[in-house]
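A reminder before we start the practical. When you read a complex entry, don't treat the lines as separate problems. The point of joint prediction is that each chain is placed relative to the others, so the output describes one connected object in space. Small molecules and nucleic acid strands, if listed, are placed in the same frame. In the example below there are two entries. Take a minute to note the order of the lines before looking further.
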Amino acid sequence: MSPEPRRHVRFNAFDMNCVGHQSPGLWRHPQDRSTDYASLRYWTHLAQVLEKGLFDGLFIADVLGTYDVYGGSNEATLRAGTQVPVNDPFLLVSAMAAVTEHLGFGVTAGTAYEHPYPFSRRLATLDHLTEGRVGWNVVTGYLPSAARNMGQTDQREHDERYEHADEYLEVIYKLLEGSWEDDAVVRDTERGVFTDPAKVHEIGHEGRYFSVPGIALTEPSPQRTPVIFQAGASPRGTRFAAEHAEAVFVAAPTREQLTATIARIRDAVEAAGRDRSDVRIYAMLTVVTGPDDATARAKYAEYRSYTDVEGALALISGWMGVDLSAYDPDDVIGTDVQSNAIQSAVATFQQASGDTGAPWTVRQLAEWVGVGGFGPVVVGSGEDVAAELIDWVDETDVDGFNLAYAITPGTFEDVVEFVVPQLQALGAYPTEYEPGTLRHKLFGRGDRLPDAHRGSRYRVGAALGATR
Amino acid sequence: MSPEPRRHVRFNAFDMNCVGHQSPGLWRHPQDRSTDYASLRYWTHLAQVLEKGLFDGLFIADVLGTYDVYGGSNEATLRAGTQVPVNDPFLLVSAMAAVTEHLGFGVTAGTAYEHPYPFSRRLATLDHLTEGRVGWNVVTGYLPSAARNMGQTDQREHDERYEHADEYLEVIYKLLEGSWEDDAVVRDTERGVFTDPAKVHEIGHEGRYFSVPGIALTEPSPQRTPVIFQAGASPRGTRFAAEHAEAVFVAAPTREQLTATIARIRDAVEAAGRDRSDVRIYAMLTVVTGPDDATARAKYAEYRSYTDVEGALALISGWMGVDLSAYDPDDVIGTDVQSNAIQSAVATFQQASGDTGAPWTVRQLAEWVGVGGFGPVVVGSGEDVAAELIDWVDETDVDGFNLAYAITPGTFEDVVEFVVPQLQALGAYPTEYEPGTLRHKLFGRGDRLPDAHRGSRYRVGAALGATR
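Here is the predicted structure of the whole assembly.
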């Protein structure tokens, strides 16, 4: 009996080249291997686990700085090992690509980190080496500590960051889509012509932030522009995503919030002249599972016992811009802690956890966030988790999940062992990879940017500027 | 009978993430695989070949631009595929590191490409992932075409580039040597302390070019600062190398020139307060070998028949700043072509080739450079090549050779098959790798910068500035 075909649930793994990405303190768990983040074997093993589980990709987050709102310093984050030390994400990819065939890699880089000319070459190089399995997660700013270390007194004002990023993307598109024609590289050994110079074009970019007159240094890679990922949630961020993003990462603790967020993004994509389904949306979520419900629940309780309260508060302080070091862990939110942002977040977390009781303390907030960050945690047997994820997809219109880990690679191994087969049995998960590039795997319509995407306007022969 | 112990000949492989690095036109040779430069398998195979041959490392050159002196455009280089297209070198390393255990990786990056804060993180990340097998080849400028594409009308004036590079290195040292103490990362699961914040220091750098107040984002890697490579030959470049370099790459067509160059470098190193042997010097050289002398000579003749004259002239024009497109291939140098730089180079090439006959034509210049660039080519049986390389080392005080390829990986495979065993039989080549990091393999005295190296002044506890 073959399962009824239904909308597939998509999985990405959410990781970072550091210790304890979204689960502060869990590096102390005896089965956690996130402390091996600096070793190649950790990453090649993880990639193989994810490919076995037919994940779309591994999404590698990044920050180029430390969280220093809590107590006004980075002491708490250093002590807890929360997202510091942190290594470069790009350099992990080729080793993982060499041991896999299908897994995609979504790598984070900021438009403020590096000039687009050398950066476009990094993107093209990875797309070549992975044979078209690369995505770029576009970050428009960075932590204030990063801005200071890059020699700026502070980062650009929020909306101007997006103007800068927008021109940055334009330069990237011009270089990767518009400089070399598809048939520029002829490799004609008879005539001794490697590249036909007539088919390589200077981009002549002269903008507000960048001047890039010349040709791209790289020949066309399988996807040309890698799949564009984005995670901005502000109105300007959503507009940016609507124009550029092909995959969007969101974090919402409840189905209600997620439903609203997804509708807003798809509306914006439509308003930008694209189809509502032209972006794949992944919601951050953590799965704790095992052979049965009781085991899963026991695991979750055990994981939570490893939460580093101070480390969690340091992350929350950084994310929300509120210094929580001023409070005692037993202080009550809404009474002792007066912050609209914190109160509103906690109200949602309480709703997500089904807790209708007393107001939370600071410690309870830390413990909630301590496993899986701001995203929901789904706990149960593979069968229960599969059913719940299908419900989320049906109810919220999300395409899939950006799975954070409680422990790594254990959380991912558990998902592959217990949840994936259940989803497959329900017809809600692929049983093999589609061939082809990451973009083709995501949308099933070829390797290149679709015509409706803004980047395609910069192709050789496209009516440049006609729709601007 | 064990061979008499003698000074070892060291090998690096000289490659670039492009087609036909130093041998324009040879991509058309049926056995050349440089056109596979964009595939991971090409690089992982090459790394395994080199490790089998006990090479110190693979040195990956780079340019962030095109050669456009010839005819005032990049047409000739595009047509011939000479160093364009060119991909990023850093992204190759982790895949090669995953399939090797000892091979070092010398990767080129310019101090003008990227801010030192994120760049220091790339270096540390690679040093972690390779377990201490990374070197950084410091380039202080770039081609004018790169400068233009980075939004500058031209690159900095030559000597100022070195001032800028000097401060760049200072920032790198402060971040990699001086921010995290050796025992800062404690990983104490009992106390829940990953890093002891008291042992992580802000570097407080405030200079002419950079302001970097904060901490490094990375924990100490096996070598901390990767092995510093350099290739500058100007007086200011030599002074820079004398202060910073641990390995120096030189190119000299004759033993006389090489001897003088090496003496000048070692004098400068001594003048900078270091030992004459504190730098390993590798001379660029191409070996064409085979089972016997006749086969090797036939190979060389065949390789030369594939030279792309225009492609070679485009490279020479770029390297020497003289537009050779104005001349006919049959024009005679010194008569039709009046250029001191070209005449002087050709005189040395003639001497190197033992040619005391008529003045060369432009075509002869191109054909000489067409296999192995400006470096010498040693042709013969493994035994003959081994004897000649030992002679070079004895006579010039060079430590070893930066082996360019005629065809790749064929040239390297030939060296490993025919030359390495002959050198070993003569006691002039190791029979196994030393354990440890690249720095330890090169100098046999540990993983870290030696005390006499300028970078060590920035260590925590060092008397900062005392010797400046």
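Discuss with your neighbour: Chain A touches chain B through 77 residues (CB under 8 Å). What might explain this?
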